[in-house]
Every structure is written in C-alpha cells, then in structure tokens.
Amino acid sequence: MSNCGTCKSWGLPHEIEKAEAFRSCVRVPHDKSMPGLTVSAEDVAAGTWPSDEDREAYMEERARTLAVVVDAEMYHAALRTSEAFGCVLHELPEEKGAAE
Q1: Which stretches of the chain are DSSP H helices?
Q2: Residues 54, 73 within the same domain
Q3: How far apart are CA 21 and CA 15, in angstroms?
Q4: For residue 55, what are the domain limits?
Q5: On the CB side of 71, how many CA atoms lie within 13 Å of its CA?
Q6: For residue 55, which of 24, 49, 68, 90 is within the disulfide window of CB 3.0 to 4.6 Å?
Q7: pLDDT tens-place string over residues 39-76
Q8: How many angstroms separate the CA atoms of 60 and 37, rounded?
Q9: Can you give the pTM of this predicted structure?
C-alpha cells in the first residue's frame, strides 16, 4: 500500500517547512466543511432535512466520502500521520513541469 510519505495530500505548508514527523492529511476533510455528513443514523432515518433535495445531496456526499475527522466542539480536528501510514486515498504529487 502507498504511504503518506509519497502522497500529495500529506502536510500543511508550515508542517512541511518544519519537517514535522506527524503531518495533517489534507485529503480527509473536517466534518464541519460538509454539514450533515456525520449526522446520526437516527437523524437520517427520521429525515430531519428541510427538503428532499438536502437529503439527496447528503446521501451523494456520503457515498463519495471515505473518511472524515470529527471534533465534538466543531472547532478543529485533523488526521495527523507519520510518513509510514498507508491509505487508500493516496495520490502521487504531480511532477513539476508535467502539466506545462
């Protein structure tokens, strides 16, 4: 399995600059950036959305999302990993000049 050390999503600029051993995965989103994604199964079943359109958008987003980080206060959460951590979301960085 590919690991974080070779992934384009491993690390925020300041973490990379400091060569921190554990860096944030910017590929795994915080659930506050996708309201309702981590709503409980009971809420989903009860259909607490104001419209069917909102429910459909929720179900589509949930189907596309493999992981989220959650914080009880909805302030900050991050998946911080070492370079050896393996992940199915791995993407190689684009080579400089390849898109030119």
Answers
A1: 13-17, 41-46, 52-64
A2: no
A3: 9
A4: 35-67
A5: 11
A6: 49
A7: 655 665 666 655 667 677 777 877 888 888 877 676 77
A8: 10
A9: 0.65
Beta bridge partners of 30: 69
Are 24 and 73 in a shared domain?
Answer: yes
Burial environment of residue 25 by CB neighbours within 10 A (0 to 12, 13 to 18, 19 or more):
buried
| Rounded CA separation 30/77 (Å) | 6
CA distance to 14, 53, 72, per residue, from 48 (Å): 40, 12, 20
Residue 10 tokens read as 């491993």
Are residue 46 and residue 58 in the same domain, yes or no? yes
Quick one: 3 and 14 in the same domain?
A: yes
The answer to whether residue 100 sits within a structural domain is no
93 Cβ contact partners less than 8 Å away, ≥ 6 residues apart:
6, 7, 8
